[in-house]
DNA sequence: CTGTTAGCGCATTCAT
DNA sequence: ATGAATGCGCTAACAG
């Protein structure tokens, strides 16, 4: 076992209170003794026991992080950002996975509280709402969700995506989402639709409705661009197009959301809208830290999304060449 | 604040020890009082304070998990598996990210210990070794790494990959890794090479050596298959091939490692070698749990990898059609 | 079988 | 400016 507060107090001939006061800056302690204490602490390699402190102060110095589905590829970034922000603020992160199941999510919340988490950051399952509890909770969801504490501006991101394609001359655009139960996806699609110009034809497609979407047939229907609510879906579309011999972005432009790790690595690189994960994480941690200091819950914060232009989006094909694919040109 | 042990003891007219004994099964307590205690606990919704217990027992009930780079897409699965395994064993998971930096890794280890982690599971940075400390550590790396506690059979996986391609008739195969500093990647490539038949030409390529690898030119050099040490690299190769108009697997077979989440979603689906994340996680947690019970460190465990065959691998093209690509056929 | 007692390591009064 | 004393909630000895 390590050295205790008492040890270093005894060795210095002072009281434990003095040592504690020095270390926590709380105190009226003379410069002289402060130096002695600090050097002794260094010498002995003393580390305060979190258990003792937690019992005394009722604070564990730990925040819970509950995620809906760790296997979602966006998770790594958000988790990393939160861990970094929390560490900077002196908190540890206790992690839990709800497997997308509302029951498991509830149990995870209870487990975190039982473990003494000072606060909880949660990215809720689709369609679940979080009832406020005794321990403060920061919710990262969509701006349109009640109880949301901080989120990316998914609507604004959708609008930005749409404007990007309009600028490139696209006028017939497919909007592809996975599930309507996701408030995030709904917001993104809404944003796209509101930004569409009157002369722009838009078709909204939800994968949960279709057995299997035939991406390639969209081209013969005159669509020149596709925006997916996730880079995952965009990647699927991209590979389908390329496999069928259609050039991206020459024949069709493709873009997604979240700027996942692979999006910059594939060929062509995927144009995407990135969340400000670091900003969101910092907000969530700050939110909790502030409430732990006794302040009331701050208003929800919405952080802008950032357009990352890569090679998967380009000028709309001219009407004549619209149905022409690469092979035909080459022969 | 919640109810304390004392409360429920007082309400029942028994001692705190009796309640504690009942709850921890430690005790010589009559059936009668046990029932009364349990029902009172239920009624009051009593939850033991981890802080108090931790201080008393010196055990936090928490394991640290230190990852080299959360943004690695394999992380989600391994983290999820470990969280699940730990929860089953009654542990919480305190997470930390070393950003691939050995210094940060060391600091993360210290932070975990300071927070009172009972044990630490670590996936080390490339090229780092973990010195055993006072708190038990389980290392998840490669079988060839000293100090490794549990890992997938990366060599065996490499061999399996090679045999899969040999069976399909491939005899000129490119092996693509990212960094030689990764023991995991080394093992995978070694496994591939040992399984290559004498009549099979193999070329080992490390991306850290090349400014930018020209995947497409490999085809004109007669390669009919490519194995990457990661699905990420395989995905890059796949999209490059498809963009250039080469059909996968008709013209070239591609396979990777780790069966990342996107591998089943792209077209064609990526053939890959999957780690048994759940098994690895269970082993790591069991390893730590056993050592916390006072047992000596168990020997390292190696878990087999599983071949997941999808559409990106197929029969080798016949020698005559080897240099022929899709467009030429169609014209 | 059950109750009493004594800390675990720390932060915090209240005296000095 | 410092020290002595107190108890956070719990469990492990020991006593009954």
Protein described:
Chain A is an alpha/beta fold and about 325 residues long. Chain A contains twelve helices and twelve strands. Chain A has helices spanning about 5-10, 15-25, 30-45, 50-55, 75-90, 100-115, 155-165, 185-195, 215-220, 230-245, 275-290, 325-330, and strands at about 60-65, 90-95, 120, 135-140, 150, 170-175, 200-205, 225-230, 255, 270-275, 300-305, 305-310. Chain A has a six-stranded mixed β-sheet, with helices on both faces. Chain A has a four-stranded parallel β-sheet with strand order 2-1-3-4, with helices on both faces. In chain A, helix 8 (about 185-195) links the parallel strand 6 and strand 7. Chains A and B meet through helix 4, helix 5, strand 2, helix 6 and helix 10 of A and helix 4, helix 5, strand 2, helix 6 and helix 10 of B. The structure holds a DNA duplex (16 and 16 nucleotides).
Largest interface: A-B, 58 and 58 residues
Nearest-integer average pLDDT of chain A = 91
**Radius of gyration of chain A using CA atoms only:** 26 Å
The number of E-state strands of chain A comes to 12
Q: Span from first to last CA of chain A? A: 78 Å
**Outline type of chain A:** elongated
The string of secondary-structure elements of chain A, in order, is: HHHHEHEHEEEHEHEHEHEEHEEH
Coarse structural class of chain A: alpha/beta
pLDDT < 50 runs, ≥5 residues of chain A: 321-331
Helical percent range of chain A? 40-55%
Number of helices of chain A: 12
């Amino acid at each position: 076992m390590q050295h205790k507060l008492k040890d270093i107090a005894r060795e210095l001939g002072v009281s434990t209170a003095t040592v504690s006061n020095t270390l926590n800056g709380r105190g009226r302690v003379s410069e002289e003794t402060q130096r002695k204490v600090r050097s002794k602490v260094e010498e002995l390699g003393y580390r305060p026991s979190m258990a003792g402190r937690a019992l005394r102060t009722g604070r564990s110095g730990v925040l819970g992080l509950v995620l809906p589905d760790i296997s979602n590829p966006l998770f790594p970034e958000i988790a990393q950002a939160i861990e970094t922000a929390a560490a900077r603020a002196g908190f540890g992160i206790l992690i839990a996975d709800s497997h997308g199941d509302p029951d498991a999510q509830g149990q995870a919340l209870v487990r975190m509280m039982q473990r003494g988490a000072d606060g909880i950051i949660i990215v809720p399952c689709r369609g679940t709402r979080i009832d406020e509890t005794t321990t403060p909770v920061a919710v990262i969801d969509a701006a349109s969700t009640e109880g949301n504490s901080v989120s990316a501006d998914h609507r604004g991101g959708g609008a930005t995506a749409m404007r990007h394609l309009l600028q490139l001359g696209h006028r017939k655009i497919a909007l592809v989402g996975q599930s309507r139960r996701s408030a995030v996806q709904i917001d993104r699609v809404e944003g796209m639709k509101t930004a569409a110009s009157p002369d722009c034809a838009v078709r909204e497609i939800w994968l949960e409705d279709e057995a299997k979407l035939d991406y390639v047939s969209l081209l013969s229907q005159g669509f020149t661009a596709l925006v997916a609510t996730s880079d995952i879906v965009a990647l699927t579309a991209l590979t389908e197009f390329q496999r069928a011999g259609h050039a991206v972005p020459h024949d069709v432009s493709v873009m997604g959301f979240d700027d996942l790790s692979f999006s910059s690595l594939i060929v062509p690189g995927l144009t995407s809208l990135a969340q400000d994960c670091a900003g969101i994480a910092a907000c969530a941690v700050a939110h909790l830290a502030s409430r732990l200091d006794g302040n009331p819950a701050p208003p929800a914060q919405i952080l802008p999304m950032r357009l990352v232009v890569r090679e998967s989006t380009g000028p709309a094909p001219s009407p004549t060449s619209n149905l022409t694919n690469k092979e035909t040109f080459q022969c």
